[in-house]
Write a structure and sequence with these properties.
211 residues; D-Maltodextrin-Binding Protein, domain 2; binds 1-O-pyrophosphono-5-O-phosphono-alpha-D-ribofuranose; alpha/beta
Length: 211
């Protein structure tokens, strides 16, 4: 039997994903060792392999079939636009993609002014402003701490994830527009879905029964 390979995005989602796998009897104890620098973990008994990668790389591994199954946020799926099947909403990691900024930016947004938008998600921002709102904006790609941008005058607004709203609040920013709800999803390689339909199908059914 060939190994089924799982790609998990490093960080917040991976821990909850592993707990979910454990609930359905898929164990990978080794992976939980925080001191380990090992990149890939094997469950010999069930012929499963797990690896951690940067979140945005998960859809890439899955599209090319280097991973059969991926666990990744909906934000990353939308941003990367890879060819894959999104098979399950796992129901954790819930948050929202929003346009945020200071109160003063409300007017600029409403009047369709040429504003600058800082974001880690340029494709999601383009889709929202160009395709949905038909508003011309300048999109500036950043890699983190996006909330800084309107504070220091790099941009008028940001497109970013809001979970508890604490980061916005502590920096005097507000949600100005909601783009879409987000959560962790299970994605599957399109060929694996056909070739391994039985094994992947039973994993999907097991996980669906506990979420
Ligand atoms: C995310 C996001 C916000 C924050 C939202 O950043 O970009 O900054 O979390 O969470 P909150 O609404 O609960 O405050 P993350 O911590 O992932 O790091 P980043 O700044 O590197 O993107």
């Amino acid at each position: 039997m060939r190994y089924l390979t799982f790609a998990l995005g490093k960080g917040r989602l991976a821990k909850t994903a592993l707990e979910l796998f454990e609930e359905v009897g898929i164990r990978c104890e080794e992976m939980k060792d925080p001191g380990s620098r090992k990149l890939i973990f094997v469950n010999e008994e069930r012929k499963l392999r797990f690896f951690l990668s940067k979140g945005p790389d998960v859809p890439t591994y899955v599209e090319y079939g280097a991973a059969d199954i991926g666990i990744v946020g909906k934000d990353t799926i939308m941003e990367e636009g890879r060819k894959l099947y999104e098979v399950l909403d796992l129901g954790f990691g819930k948050c929202k993609m929003c346009v945020c900024g200071p109160d003063s930016a409300r007017e600029l947004l409403d009047h369709g002014q040429l504003i600058r938008v800082a974001t880690k998600y340029p494709n999601i921002a383009k889709d929202h402003f160009y395709n949905k709102k038909h508003q011309t904006v300048e999109i500036i790609k950043l890699n983190g701490s996006i909330e800084l941008a309107p504070i220091v005058g790099l941009s008028e607004v940001i497109v970013d994830i809001v979970e508890t709203g604490t980061t916005l609040k502590e920096n005097g920013l507000h949600v100005l527009e909601e783009i879409c709800p987000l959560s962790a999803r299970m994605v599957v390689n399109q060929v694996s879905m056909k070739m391994e339909s039985e094994r992947i199908g039973s994993i999907i059914r097991a996980i669906r029964s506990v979420i």
